[in-house]
Design brief:
This protein is an alpha/beta fold and 168 residues long. The chain folds into two domains: 4-109, Rossmann fold, CATH 3.40.50.20; 113-168, no CATH class. It has helices at 10-22, 39-43, 62-72, 88-96, 106-112, 115-124, 139-149, and strands at 4-6, 27-32, 46-51, 76-78, 100-101. Strands 3-2-1-4-5 form a five-stranded parallel sheet. It is elongated.
């Protein structure tokens, strides 16, 4: 890797930029309008604006991230966590664009992107898992499963990540 674009913001982006600096690898930060003066932008060797404040128009816009990598000559992209880090289509887009995706392969992301699929794979591999169930279809099924497992329980969206689908 000759230059890494960090496709994230905030503390995680800053940590990645610092780790790259320790290894003498140039970094490229991306930023939305609201983050233009953020610490990760200041700490990186280069920075590229990728859009307005809404994440859907900036940090989740895969094409803009790839364009930023091309414009700066970055040959790898580190997604951090959240945003595009668990997006198989983005990992595949990096690959087809000739940019290394620093993370799991698109196939691996697809296999474990769903919590139910990941649980099934873990069980098939003999790995220990916390008490749980296969996908539940309705509230009655959830109540029955909770009674069997024992309280407290946590219901999570099968495809949720980073807190998506969780309610207090």
């Amino acid at each position: 890797m000759n230059k890494v674009l960090v496709a994230n913001r905030g503390e995680i982006a800053l940590r990645i930029v610092r780790a790259l600096r320790e290894r003498n690898i140039p970094s490229v930060a991306v930023y939305s309008d609201v983050d233009r003066n953020a610490l990760h932008v200041q700490a990186a060797n280069e920075a590229v604006r990728i859009g307005p404040a809404p994440s859907s128009q900036s940090y989740l816009n895969a094409e803009r991230i790839i364009d930023a990598a091309r414009a700066t000559g970055a040959d790898a992209i580190h997604p951090g966590y959240g945003f595009l880090s668990e997006n198989a289509d983005f990992a595949r887009l990096c690959q087809t664009s000739g940019v290394t995706f620093i993370g799991p392969s698109a196939d691996s992301i697809e296999k474990v992107g769903s919590k139910t699929a990941a649980r099934t794979l873990a069980l098939e591999a003999g790995a220990p898992v916390v008490p749980g169930t296969a996908a539940l279809e309705n509230v009655a099924d959830a109540a029955q499963a909770a009674a069997k497992i024992g309280y407290p329980v946590l219901l999570k969206a099968a495809a949720g990540g980073g807190g998506k689908g969780m309610r207090a």
